[in-house]
Write a structure and sequence with these properties.
seven-stranded parallel beta sheet, binds magnesium ion, alpha/beta, binds 2-succinylbenzoate
Length: 370
């Protein structure tokens, strides 16, 4: 396939409700959509870099620069026939995994469409529905926190992930456990703690949690290994794993016993699948993380989460949990058994709606002939 053009669309969408983590509160989510044309087909990919360098160093601005000035020019006009061709061309780029992943995703969509198969089928998915949970943001009061969880439980989510931060942890988790003694529950600290906080994690260790996600420094594995040795609840790494190599290093020193795989954070679907395979070999469960994606990114997450070793519920909630009007259709809905159905039509299975895209677009640039 000869890549004819790549268009970057910077969009900004209001969230259904504010989303608060230990690193901040968001009411809108900007992202870059990649539109790639080849052989009369159009593929779409979503870049999960944020408004600011809070979750990761990449931002809308850095990703725009890296994609438009480096990644797109490396492949526009080139004949590329397999996703590995994209990965190989980008191998000389250090860092910027979210930028690389977005372009690779657009190519995967094109590639699956050209073959007339769903992305899930193409990458070796073994299920047609994936079990999902919901990542619940921090609320301003305990009462509001319990009320927000109540709404998600009532909506049918069978697994709840609570965001925690210093001052908003043991007491909140205890209150949630008292109200829902048996619900599948996990917490995510987004790197808000230090090794001195080990006593907090020893208390959380008594609360029957599925896992504790990224308690310590965003780039650390050594302190996490020391903490894992003190608690029996599995530590799950998110921020610290940027590549298949990081996954291997973390597992080699027992820094975690579960990995949250996010396609953007690890530099693409190819790398995500490699981490899945490595963890499967080592008997380590994985699950698919989320970045408040639009339906474009969510469709790819569902395909990934349909691989066999995604044995824990993913942060892949129904479209309505994120946006009132998504820029792509169809919307994803929660089935009665806390699953979401994996698309089975050619490509990612969602189509971008041009008029909705126009309504939320901030700027666009075309590389190649438009
Ligand atoms: O740490 O998993 C995280 C959203 C933005 C940045 C980081 C994280 C999250 C989530 C949201 O938890 C998960 C979702 O998309 O539902
Ligand atoms: Mg996380």
């Amino acid at each position: 396939m000869k890549i004819e053009s790549i268009t970057l669309h910077h969009i900004d969408m209001p969230l259904v409700a504010p989303f608060e983590t230990s690193f901040g509160r968001e009411t809108h989510r900007p992202c870059i959509l990649i539109e790639m044309r080849a052989d009369g087909l159009t593929g779409w990919g979503e870049c999960v870099a944020g408004a600011g360098p809070w979750y990761a160093y990449e931002t809308i601005g850095t990703a725009w620069h890296i994609i438009s000035d480096f990644l797109a020019p490396m492949i526009v006009g080139q004949e590329i026939n397999e996703p590995i061709g994209i990965v190989e061309r980008f191998a000389s780029v250090r860092g910027h995994p979210m930028a690389r992943a977005a372009v690779e995703a657009a190519f995967w969509d094109l590639y699956a469409q050209a073959r007339g198969v769903s992305l899930a089928r193409l990458i070796g998915a073994t299920r047609d529905r994936v079990t999902v949970g919901v990542s619940v943001g921090i609320e301003l009061t305990l009462e509001a926190q319990l009320a927000s969880i109540e709404r998600f439980v009532a909506a049918g989510y069978a697994r709840i992930k609570l965001k925690i931060k210093p001052g908003w942890d043991v007491a909140v988790v205890r209150a949630v456990r008292e109200r829902w003694p048996d619900i599948a529950l996990q917490v995510d600290a987004n790197s808000a703690y230090t090794p001195d906080d080990a006593p907090i994690f020893r208390e959380l260790d008594e609360m029957n949690l599925l896992l504790i996600e990224q308690p310590l420094h965003h780039d650390d594995i050594v302190d996490h290994a020391r903490l894992q040795a003190q608690i029996s609840t599995p530590i799950c790494l998110d921020e610290s794993i940027h590549s298949p190599e990081h996954a291997r290093w973390a597992l080699d020193i027992d820094a975690c016993r579960v990995i949250n795989i996010k396609i953007g954070r690890v530099g693409g679907l190819t790398a995500a699948r490699q981490i899945h395979d490595l963890c499967a070999e080592r008997g380590v469960p994985v699950w698919c993380g989320g970045m408040l994606e639009t339906n474009v990114g969510r469709a790819v997450n569902l395909a990934l989460a349909a691989l066999p070793n995604f044995s824990l519920p993913g942060d892949i909630s129904a479209s309505a949990r994120y946006y009132h009007r998504d820029i792509a259709a169809p919307d994803f809905v929660l089935n009665d058994d806390s699953t979401i159905t994996v698309p089975d039509t050619p490509g990612t299975g969602v189509a971008v709606l041009p008029e909705r895209l126009r309504d939320v677009q901030v700027r666009e640039v075309i590389i190649g002939k438009g």
